[in-house]
Amino acid sequence: MAERFTKSMARNMYMGGSLFFILIFVGLTMDTVRQMPDRDNRENLTEAVAHGKKLWEDNNCVGCHSLLGEGAYFAPELGNVFQRRGGDVAFKAFFKGWMNAQPLGIPGRRAMPQFNLSDEDLDALADFLEYASKINTNGWPPNIEG
Ligand code: HEC
After folding, report:
1. Cys-Cys with 124: which of 52, 111, 115, 146 at CB 3.0–4.6 Å?
2. Substitution site in 65, 115, 116, 129 for ligand 1 pocket (most atoms within 8 Å of beta carbon)
3. Do 99 and 145 sit in the same domain of this protein?
4. 17-23: average pLDDT
């Protein structure tokens, strides 16, 4: 056994360690990509959902809200608002009522602006939020009140 910790030993540990973890990283990335088709809810990716996503972006909803954890933390997470507010039966009615009622104007409560969107646009946004809520995220967000 070498008595000294040589430069070449240090280099081998650095190179070997890096290679080992790069291989793990590549393996996990490939595993994620392989699982995507079964998990990303692509079978429900309709024209209306795509239109809803565009409205979501154009109106900068993510400037206040998060979606599946990404975004701002001023307002509630919306990746699970579909389940939180009625699901299949009542969500669309809740959503349209909510959007049309803004701003609520309750003192001391954080306010959301009025976007003046058409009925058709509200339908598309609701479809987009429903679509997002059915992506298999391993149970994220962990809390229904998000
Ligand atoms: C300026 C910040 C802001 C922006 C931009 C914004 N919201 Fe909100 N939103 C809020 C706040 C604050 C609340 C919570 C208000 C409350 O509880 O009275 C809220 C609540 C909601 C809720 C109800 C959530 C729940 O759990 O019941 C929905 C749905 C919603 N927003 C959708 C949207 C959509 C869709 C957009 C983009 C078109 C948007 N918001 C843009 C601030 C914002």
Report:
1. 52
2. 65
3. yes
4. 98
- Lookup result for tokens 């809803």: 52
Q: Which residue segment(s) compose the domain that 10 sits in?
A: 1-39
**Res 1: pLDDT:** 60
Q: Give how many domains the chain has, as a whole number.
A: 2
Q: How far apart, in whole angstroms, are the C-alpha atoms of residue 37 and residue 48? A: 20
Ligand 1 pocket (Cβ < 6 Å) reads 59-61, 63-65, 74-76, 78, 81, 84-85, 95, 98, 104, 109-113, 115, 125
C-alpha separations of 42 from 36, 39, 53, 124 in Å? 9, 8, 14, 16
CATH number at residue 59: 1.10.760.10
Confidence band for 101, pLDDT divided at 50, 70 and 90: very high
Whether the predicted pLDDT of 146 surpasses 80: no
